[in-house]
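User: I'm writing a short report section on ligand binding and want a predicted complex to refer to. Could you take this sequence and copper (II) ion and write out the structure as tokens? A short remark afterwards would be nice.
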Amino acid sequence: MERSIRTWGVAGLAVAFLVGMTGCGDDDGTGSATTVARDDVEQTVPAQDGDEQGQDAPDANPCAPGESGRLGPPADEPADDATPVTISGSEYEFSGQEALSTPGEYAITFTNTGNELHEFVLMRINDDETRPVEELLTQDNPEEFASEVAFAFACPGDSSDPVGADMSEPGRYVAVCFIPVGSLPSTAAEEFGRLGPPHAMQGMVAEIQVG
Ligand SMILES: [Cu+2]
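Assistant: Sure. The structure tokens for the complex follow:
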């Protein structure tokens, strides 16, 4: 599957969240949500420009009362014979990802058991990439060493629709959450650009060896 990588790397981590949010703002979600290519992201939100990030805040908090509870483009439908798996996210860790260690097609339901907003970004790391995940997280060129496999998002106490994840190719996969620390359903949209570091920096990242 060819999909743009939302973002990667410390400098642009919060951008992943903001890009997704912008795509599902105050419209009705009829196909206008898009995945923004890295170059576009960098143009929109210059790295090292923290004072300016507030101006790129999303139109709406997806978990505020009356909002959709959804983030980003519609999920890829799972294959009919995909194995259902539930992954949980909370502050600040994933659980249940061991169920993904066998090569195959999965239908992943992401459940948020925490108090903050959480996302499940699943990437496959290229076979020729040997650096540890901790080091890869500091890079800002993820398209050169990884590709996106699946994306899901859930508000506190809620679950995503099942999303298809083709993990039939053995290798190193990584699940990561880029949502900034302090993201609550009550957080005003304009505050998202001024919140803490991404959850990944607090440990919400899990390497999954498949095969
Ligand atoms: Cu998170």
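A remark for your report: The pocket of copper (II) ion is lined by residues 89, 118, 177, 179, 199, 204 (CB under 6 Å). DSSP finds three helices and eight strands in the chain.
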